[in-house]
Specification:
Elements (H helix, E strand, L loop, with lengths): L19 H11 L3 H4 L22 H23 L3 H27 L5 H20 L8 H23 L4 H26 L2 H17 L22 H29 L4 H22 L2 H11 L3 H32 L7 H26 L4 H12 L9 H23 L12
Helix pairs in contact: 3-4, 3-5, 3-9, 3-12, 4-6, 4-8, 4-9, 5-6, 6-7, 7-8, 9-10, 9-11, 9-12, 10-12, 10-15, 11-13, 12-13, 13-14, 13-15, 14-15
Length: 435
Amino acid sequence: MGGADAWRLPRPGRTATLPQGARRRRGGAQSGGPSMAALSARTVLLRRRGGGAERSPVTNIELFFDLVFAFAITQVSHSLLTHLSLLGALHAALLFVAVWWVWIDTSWVTNWLDPDRTPVRMLLFALMLAGLVLSASLPEAFGERGLAFAGAYVFMQVGRSLFMLWALHRHDRGNFRNFQRITVWMAGAGVFWLLGGVLDGAPRFGLWLLALTLEFGSPAIGFHVPGLGRSTTADWTIDGGHLAERCSAFILIALGESITVTGASFFELTWTATAATAFVAAFVGSVALWWIYFDIGAERASRIIALSDDPGRLGRIAYTYILAVLAAGIVVSAVGDELTLAHPTAPVGGAAAAVLLGGPLLALAGNIAFKRVTAGRVPLSHLVGLAILAALLPCLPWLNLLRLDAASAAALVVVATWERMSLGAAGREAPAVRR
C-alpha cells in the first residue's frame, strides 16, 4: 500500500524494468545485494495503468477468488444464527472482520499485481485453497478447528506479503519497502493468531482480538516499523476505480447471502400466507439495502476516488474500514430474515431484536459514514431511517418477528425512496473531486 518513498507505476507503453546496471546498483544499495536480487521476480508482474478515471479491469480470476468468500460469509452467518447470544455475536464479529480483512488485503494486492500473469494466478489459487480451509473451519473456529483456522489465516496474510516482496524487489522500490513493513506487522500478528489457535476459551478470543487489532490498526499508523519508517497514503499509488469495483463485489457477496437465505428458507416452508409475507419482507429488505448503496453512492464514490489526488486515503478510510460496517450490517440482516422465516409469529426477544434492528442500523450507519467521507455530506434520508428504526424499540412488546422484520424493511424502503427522489439525476452528476 505504497511506501513513503514509493515510485509511481509506469505510464502505458513504458516498461517498469530498469537498465541492467541500474538494477544491480539498486539491488546492492537498497535491498541486500545480489543474493536478495537473485530471489526476486525477473519479469514485471505489475499492472499497466491508464490515466485519469480509466480503471484497470476486474479480471475473471479475481471474481473466481471471491467465490471462496461467498462460502465464508455463509459460514459466518450460519454460525451467528446457531449461537444467537452475546458471546456468539462477539465470536461472529471477530470472524467476520478476519474474513473481511484477508479479502480486502488481497484486493489491495491485486490492485498492483496483474492477475493475468501466471505467477499471480498461482498465488491466487494458493490463497483460494487456504481460504477454503479457513472457511470450512469457521463454524468450529472457537472449538476444535481453531488451529486450522489460524494456520490458514496466517498462511494467507504472511504468504501473500512474502509474494509481494518477491514480485516488487526489482521493479518498485517504494512499494517493496512498504511490504517489508507490512510483512513485519503480519508476522507479528500471526504469532498471536497461532498461539490463540493452540489455546481454548477466553485466552483464544483474547489473543485473536489482539492479533486482529494489530492488523486492523496498522494501516492507520502507516505500518510504522522502527528502522523502516512508515508509509503515507499520498504514496499509495492504487487504481481507485478498481478498488471501488472490487469492494462493490464484496457487498454483492453479502447481499447474495441474504438472497440465498431467503430463497432456501422459503423453499423448506409450507407455503402459507404468513410464510409468503415473511418471504416478501425479506426480499424487499435486501432490495432496499442494494438500492441504498448502489443507486447513487457506489458509482459516485468510484468516480471520486478514481480522480482523487490521494486515492490511498479514500481507499483506506472509505473502502478498507467503513465498508466493513456496511457489509456486516447486510450479513446480520440476513440472519434476521432467516430467523423470521423460520419463526414468523414468535415474540421478539432480545437476541431477535438485536439482529432484526441491528442489521439495518449497521447498514445505514455504514452508508452514512461512506457517503460522508466520499461525498462530503450526510444524507437526511439516512438519518430519518435511523430514527424510524429507533422508534420501533418501544413497540417491541407488541410485535412479533414478522411485523418487526416488515417494519425494518419498510424503514429501508423509505430511505431508498427519499434519497432517490431528493437527489435523482443530480446525484448522478459527476461530483467535484475530493482532494
